[in-house]
Amino acid sequence: MSKLHTYFSILALVVLMGCEGEEQYAPVASPMEITAAAYTSPLPASITLLTMVKEGGDFSEHTGILINAAQQVLYDPAGTFRHSTSPNARDVNYGMHPAMVEYYKSYHARRGYYVVVQTVEVSPEIAELVFQRSVAQGETAKLRCGISASSVLNGLPMFSNIPTTYFPGKIMTRFGEIPGVTTTYVYEEDEGQNFHG
């Protein structure tokens, strides 16, 4: 095995280790809990890609998708984010009102890591398709957040340039090429993940 091949094998393993490696034990929310928590945003339909990046090499380790459809939800494949007022069912968090979205960003942004927030307006129909694909994807195995996130986007109008990939950074790069995308960054200086409620 060449040194170059060994390097890329190790790099691929490190990338895969980024997608929230700890086991989850949270119960699946009931339909009643999901209905009660539903939040409808007054803003136009949109898709927001949230990528957690390690400072120092700009190494992307996790990805989630905020979907503003008929209701606003967060698809967080293989994620560990939980909040008592945001019921989770198979990697989809419901009740993602603005304060909850900020909690999610704060949960991931910390010393050594920042969050890249990329938003693009879409038609209500596309937003609903992304939402339905996320629900249909089901719970994602550890280390496969990139595969699941890219799979719910690619093939749809506006997102056809996004390949199916393990690498959150590749999704982030391709998402940034979509016309009309706005990008912001979230930095915090705490030492670890923030846990809320």
How would you describe this protein?
The protein has 197 residues and is α+β, with helices and mostly antiparallel strands. It has a single domain, classed as endopeptidase fold (from Nostoc punctiforme). 32% of the residues lie in helices and 21% in strands. It has 6 helices and 7 strands, in the order H-H-E-E-E-E-E-H-E-H-H-H-E. The chain has a 7-stranded antiparallel beta sheet, sandwiched between helices. The protein is globular, with a radius of gyration of 16 Å. The N terminus is likely disordered.
Topology:
Elements: H1 3-17, H2 31-37, E1 46-54, E2 59-68, E3 72-75, E4 88-89, E5 92-93, H3 98-108, E6 113-121, H4 124-137, H5 145-153, H6 168-175, E7 182-187
Antiparallel strand pairs: 1-2, 1-6, 2-3, 3-5, 4-5, 6-7
Helix pairs in contact: 4-5
CATH top level is Alpha Beta
Return Rg in Å. 16 Å
How is the main sheet built? 7 strands, antiparallel
SSE arrangement, N to C:
HHEEEEEHEHHHE
Strand order of the largest sheet: 4-5-3-2-1-6-7
Chain-averaged pLDDT: 85
What is CATH's topology name?
endopeptidase fold (from Nostoc punctiforme)
**From the 3D coordinates, which CATH architecture would you assign?**
Alpha-Beta Complex
Query: Oligomeric status of the shown chains?
Result: single chain
- What form results from the Cα inertia axes? globular
Strand element count: 7
Task: Provide the descriptors you would attach to this structure in a database record.
single chain, alpha+beta, endopeptidase fold (from Nostoc punctiforme), 7-stranded antiparallel sheet, 32% helix
Quick overview of this protein structure:
With 197 residues, the chain is α+β, with helices and mostly antiparallel strands. The chain is built from 6 helices and 7 strands, in the order H-H-E-E-E-E-E-H-E-H-H-H-E. The protein has one domain: endopeptidase fold (from Nostoc punctiforme) (Alpha-Beta Complex).
